[in-house]
Write a structure and sequence with these properties.
The complex is a heterotrimer of chains A (about 240), B (about 100) and C (about 375). Chain A is of the alpha/beta class and about 240 residues long. Chain A has 7 helices and 10 strands. Classes of the chains: A alpha/beta (about 240), B mainly alpha (about 100), C alpha+beta (about 375).
């Protein structure tokens, strides 16, 4: 479970161009559920995801992670509950790597290397054995129907294939939470629906999924358990409804 | 095979080759020792003072016997004539010497 | 432990894939790098081995050579000096040396003519260095025509050819009897080229040299230590052709490598952002850059050094031959005894591998410390 308590994020605080992207956001994200963030451009969806995903720190407020699925934190730090706002950088990276899987709007695949290597990328610095990682990567690629491209370079892939490779990559470290920012922005309707099917199967596996999108295919989908609407850095309607 | 394995193997092979070379240089020198003692014998018998490296001029053939002026023939700023004169010069200590 | 090794291997894997993406560029960089290391290492090996060889072979050189100077030039020394010097305390023997140079207009080569007294060739007979035999195409029993300084030709019989393993000291020698040499150059009996002095105690050499130059102000004593020192400083790198060529190569390489290593393209910057966003730490990114630099520089260093060793000690530095040969017609052929100074290897390592690797890491430093969320907004 992810809990945000009165989280505020300001960019360039104290300067003339100070900008508050998130204002007093409190939110609870239930585990093994699909939560969609919706809202107009600039409303702070991406900012919220980066805070939850340990990529940036809030200016004020607390973010708590709870549950058995939280890995990558120092042993004995709390009883299954971590406040990520206070952790040093090193542990944040650990949590980001082990607990979160990210799917980006632009897929963010590394050009010039193979599909397989791209999928294995997040696992390299963990020091896990290469054989185990590549086997897992192949399984994921097979799961998403792109196994036959494993040895080809990512530049050759179509948009939908690249998307599925990106999803495979987000799952390589067996995260319990998947964070996706505008995952369907570069996909057509059919591929977007396909993506939602994948989301459904991930949910069935017990993963917590957070999607930011202004695509109705996403937030109107029956697989989405709760929709959080945002505007100008605030949550409308007082937060999630399970 | 993994790329890193290939790299580590190639590097190790190179390093081993280099060590073999260095060891070979240290131990396998029976022939070299013979050549050296033959040369040393000639040096001793004929009272030679120099190595025969460059034969084109007397100051390159016998650099230790030559005087400071000779490489420049008459004027210290005259242009060097022989290419090897650029590699071999009379030792600098002659200049301050007694 | 295992995880650390595995992490290094994983990142090395990725570094290699990453280098292979720009195959042409990195390969050419590697080739130039190897050539530069090869040239520097070959010169270092060559000169070091030559110095060692000189130090060992010239151990048997005279303790001191006394020349006579006339108007700043070397002149023939009166044999009478020998007796007077021999009378000085501490001197064990003084032998006059007769030797000189002979330019053969037919082959265009310079030879060194030396009179030998202990196993003196019979009058009319000579021993020749194997270089002479090669240039003149003569062998044992052949006749060697030499034009004396009076213009009259002298026919000398080759008694033997000196062993070719001694070519480093004897390639251009023509050894003859003292009488023949004096006749050839018309050197009067009471003069010699210089005097070879042997002393009982080599510690007294310097004092003796002072004494000799006081007794004979027109003389110039040359000590054995000076002879050996000459060979320590023999390869003066001032303006040598090879050095010029090398300097240009090194310089252009430095510019090239600098440009390649330091210039972080927008593409690479973006890639670092991606790596950060998928969970790489700053340290992981720097490790990746370290390996990218180390792979190229380490392998180029090893290849360059191995090739240099092979070329200097197995191929007798045949690539350098044109440069070292200069204008000489007679070029001695010798095989150097492998001598490598580990210290020089270490210095070469630190001068080639370390700067390049650092030059790859440093520019990535800034890019590697970007916030991971930057990739979300690209
Ligand atoms: N590093 C930054 N410095 C200053 N302002 C920033 C920075 N990052 C984001 N912002 C601002 O914060 C606001 C929220 O941005 P955010 O990316 O979260 O919006 P979003 O809801 O994801 O919009 P979109 O739907 O277009 O992706 C925007 O107005 C943006 O300009
Ligand atoms: Mg956004």
């Amino acid at each position: 479970m992810i809990e945000l308590l009165r989280v505020t994020k300001s960019f360039h605080p104290g300067k003339s161009n100070q900008f508050t992207a998130l204002q007093d956001v409190s939110l609870t994200v239930e585990p093994a559920r699909v939560t969609a963030l919706k809202g107009p451009s600039g409303s702070g969806k991406t900012t919220l995801l980066t805070l939850i995903g340990c990529m940036a720190r809030p200016t004020s407020g607390r973010i708590l992670l709870r549950g058995a699925g939280i890995r990558g934190i120092p042993a004995g730090a709390g009883n299954g509950e971590v406040e990520i706002t206070g952790l040093p950088e090193r542990f944040l990276t650990g949590i980001r790597r082990e607990t979160f899987g990210f799917i980006f709007q632009h897929f963010n695949l590394v050009k010039g290397i193979t599909v397989l290597e791209n999928v294995m990328l997040p696992a390299y610095p963990t020091g896990e054995r290469c054989g185990a990682v590549s086997q897992r990567a192949m399984e994921l690629l097979a799961l998403f129907n792109v196994a036959r491209h494993a040895a080809s370079r990512v530049d050759r892939l179509s948009g939908g294939e690249a998307q599925r490779v990106a999803i495979a990559r987000s799952l390589i470290n067996r995260p319990s939470i998947i964070v996706a920012d505008e995952p369907t922005a570069h996909l057509d309707t059919r591929l977007s629906r396909e993506f939602m099917q994948i989301v459904r199967s991930l949910k069935a596996e017990g993963k917590t999924i957070l999607v930011a999108s202004h695509d109705p295919i996403v937030y109107d989908s029956p697989f989405v358990d709760s929709v959080v609407e945002m505007r100008d850095g605030r949550i409308l309607g007082g937060g999630a409804t399970p | 095979m993994r790329k890193s394995t290939v790299f580590v193997l190639v590097t190790a092979a190179n390093a081993i080759l280099l060590s073999i070379f260095l060891l070979h240089g240290k131990y396998d020198r029976g022939e070299a020792a013979a050549a050296r003692s033959a040369s040393a014998e000639i040096v001793r018998k004929l009272r030679l003072t120099d190595l025969c490296l460059f034969t084109e001029a007397r100051y390159t053939r016998h650099p230790s016997m030559t005087d400071f002026q000779s490489p420049f023939q008459d004027h210290p700023l005259a242009l060097e004539h022989f290419p090897s004169g650029a590699l071999v010069t009379p030792p600098g200590f002659r200049r301050e010497g007694p | 432990m295992n995880r650390t090794v595995e992490r290094h291997r994983n990142i090395l894997d990725f570094a290699l894939s990453s280098l292979l993406r720009r195959k042409g560029k990195n390969l050419s960089l590697w080739v130039v790098y190897t050539i530069v290391v090869f040239l520097i290492a070959a010169i270092v090996f060559y000169t070091h081995a030559l110095k060692r060889e000189a130090a060992l072979v010239l151990q048997g050189a005279p303790d001191m050579v006394v020349q006579k100077m006339v108007a700043g030039r070397q002149d023939l020394v009166p044999v009478a000096y020998a007796g007077k010097i021999a009378a000085l305390r501490g001197v064990s023997s003084v032998r006059p040396r007769c030797w000189g140079y002979y330019f053969d207009p037919i082959s265009g080569a310079n030879y060194t003519l030396v009179a030998s007294e202990s196993p003196s060739p019979a009058p009319g007979a000579v021993d020749i260095g194997s270089g002479v035999a090669r240039v003149l195409r003569v062998g044992r029993g052949d006749l060697l025509p030499i034009r004396s300084s009076s213009g009259a030709p002298m026919l000398l019989t080759v008694r033997k050819v000196l062993p070719c393993v001694s070519e480093l000291v004897a390639a251009d020698l023509i050894v003859m009897s003292e009488g023949d040499l004096r006749d050839l150059f018309r050197i009067p009996r009471d003069l010699a080229t210089d005097l070879a002095v042997t002393v009982a105690n080599s510690d007294e050499l310097a004092t003796l040299a002072v004494k000799i130059s006081q007794r004979f102000p027109d003389s110039r004593p040359i000590l054995k230590s000076e002879i050996l020192r000459t060979y320590d400083s023999i390869f003066d790198w001032r303006g040598g052709m090879m050095v010029v060529v090398l300097a240009v190569a090194v310089l252009s390489f430095v510019i090239f490598a600098w440009d390649k290593a330091t210039g972080l393209s927008a593409e690479e910057r973006k890639e670092i952002g991606i790596l950060k966003s998928v969970g790489w730490e700053t340290g992981d990114v720097l490790l990746l850059k370290f390996w990218e630099g180390a792979v190229i520089s380490l392998s180029a260093f090893l290849c360059g050094v191995v090739l240099a060793y092979f070329q200097v000690f197995f191929l007798s530095a045949s690539l350098f031959e044109p440069a070292l040969k200069g204008w000489a017609v007679l070029y001695p052929r010798f095989r150097l005894v492998p001598e490598v100074d580990p210290y020089q290897l270490v210095v070469l390592f630190f001068l080639t591998v370390v700067p390049y690797t650092i030059a790859t890491i440093v520019p990535s430093w800034r890019a590697a410390t970007v916030d991971p969320d930057a990739a979300m907004r690209s």
